[in-house]
Specification:
- With 97 residues, the chain is an alpha+beta fold.
- The protein has one domain: Glutaredoxin (3-Layer(aba) Sandwich).
- Helices cover 32% and strands 8% of the residues.
Length: 97
């Protein structure tokens, strides 16, 4: 989908270049649900860590996301101050048009 647009794209692979806690907080600030919008509750790693049974603070989630890239919802597309988290064709198309 991104290749079909004229948008200039910078790709970042979280497993190779994990975002810092500051970058995660900045991204979370753009999302209505904050850092929880970044967290993939359906990921294998989320289940392995039994996170559904834990009550973590936002600060703890930021640290966890910085340490565990497998917990990120993907893709995350940022354009200015707009963000689409997860594959949502309609929202991605709106963001890129």
């Amino acid at each position: 989908m991104l290749g079909e647009t004229d948008a200039q794209v910078t790709e970042r692979q979280y497993f190779k270049q994990t975002p810092s806690a500051d970058e995660i907080r900045a991204l979370a600030a753009l999302l209505p649900g904050g850092v929880r919008d970044i967290l993939s509750t359906r990921s294998r790693r989320y289940k392995e860590l039994e996170l559904a049974e834990k009550s973590l603070t936002d600060a703890e989630l930021v640290d966890l996301l910085a340490a565990e890239p497998g917990l990120w919802r993907r893709p995350i597309v940022v354009r200015g101050n707009q963000v689409v988290v997860g594959f949502d064709a309609k929202n991605l198309e709106a963001l890129l048009s």
